[in-house]
Amino acid sequence: MTTSSVELRLSRRAERELARQARPLVVEVELYFSCLIRKRVYFPPAAHADARPLSTTHGKLQVFFRPVMGQACAIPADGKPVLTAFPLQKDLAFTPRWLRLDFKAGRWQGDYGFV
To answer: Global pTM?
Structure first.
């Protein structure tokens, strides 16, 4: 798979916080397939091994895309389903086109979309 690019939409707070950071911020964009579809943006210390890099023009960001599926429809009581990589048949149809980041109340927040 080739590396896709994602359009960044950063709030002023996010831009200021990124400027303060000594290391690049790792952002993992997850698309979860099960009985429903869920979108999430995580900020882990390192990307998951099966996450795919997305290119950006910002040197302080490392963005990754991870399509996953659950082993069952029900989400366990702890809220942490067992996930496995989800092989996409049409990568471009499901790969995020834009990523919006903000930094509020001392925490990173994000959203993404396809159009």
So the answer is: 0.83
What domain count does the chain have? 1
Q: Is 56 exposed, middle or buried (0-12, 13-18, 19+ CB in 10 A)?
A: middle
In angstroms, the CA 104 to CA 85 distance is: 31
Kindly report the CATH number assigned to the domain that includes residue 10.
Answer: 2.60.300
Read off the pLDDT of residues 81-112 as tens digits, 9 standing for 90 and up: 778 777 777 777 788 999 999 999 999 999 99
What's the domain range around 12?
Answer: 4-72+81-113
